[in-house]
Amino acid sequence: MKLSLKKLSIAALTIVMGITMNVSANAQDVKKGKRVFMKCQICHRITADARKSTGPNLYTIFDRKAGALEGYKYSKAMLKAGAEGLVWTEENIRKQATNPRKFMKGSKMAFAGVKKAKDMDNLIAYMRQETSK
Q1: What are 49-87's pLDDT values in tens digits?
Q2: Domain locations in the chain?
Q3: Is the pTM of this model over 0.85?
Q4: How far is residue 51's CA from residue 43's CA, in Å, rounded to a whole number?
Q5: Contact, 45 vs 57, CB < 8 A?
Q6: DSSP-derived secondary structure letter, 54
Q7: For residue 65, what are the β-bridge partners?
Q8: Can you say how many angstroms the Cα of residue 97 is from the centroid of all Cα atoms in its chain?
Q9: DSSP H or E run through 23
């Protein structure tokens, strides 16, 4: 079966456009993530030079050992989790931010959680951008 160059070009263009549209539909929105973070900033800061707050500063949170930020008084549960090797990977941040009390029993974090998956994706994108400068 011979395909003409025109038909082959149209097929290739269709595939590329489909992939591009799918990627952009699934892309995280940092601006929306910043809006989601507004719920978090009641207790947390996200910049290197931030003033103290109720919760620990989340600057450089990714791949940080739990309970390890100097100068913050963590719950016993958080200190124990860190001593047992909990590290703030994207997966663990997602679990914590979705349902903090379920993720870590005994945590002093009083937050209902981010329930929508798209909000969580946007939040993670924003946090990655802001905490790794």
Answers
A1: 988 899 999 999 999 999 999 999 999 999 999 999 999
A2: 29-131
A3: no
A4: 11
A5: yes
A6: S
A7: 87
A8: 8
A9: helix 5-26
Q: Which residue, 61, 45, 77, is CA-closest to 69? A: 61
Closest CA to 60 of 111, 132, 11, 125: 132
Q: Which two tokens stand for residue 73?
A: 């008084």
Domain 29-131 top-level CATH class? mainly alpha
Nearest 5°: the CA angle 125, 126, 128 is 65
At 5-17, the pLDDT tens digits run: 555 455 554 554 4
Cα radius of gyration rounded to whole Å, the chain: 20
Give the angle 69-56-29 at the CA atoms, nearest 5°.
Answer: 110
Q: Using CB atoms within 10 A of its CB, is residue 13 exposed (0-12), middle (13-18) or buried (19+)?
A: exposed
List C-alpha distances in Å: 102 to 44, 97, 106, 108, 109. Answer: 20, 10, 9, 12, 11
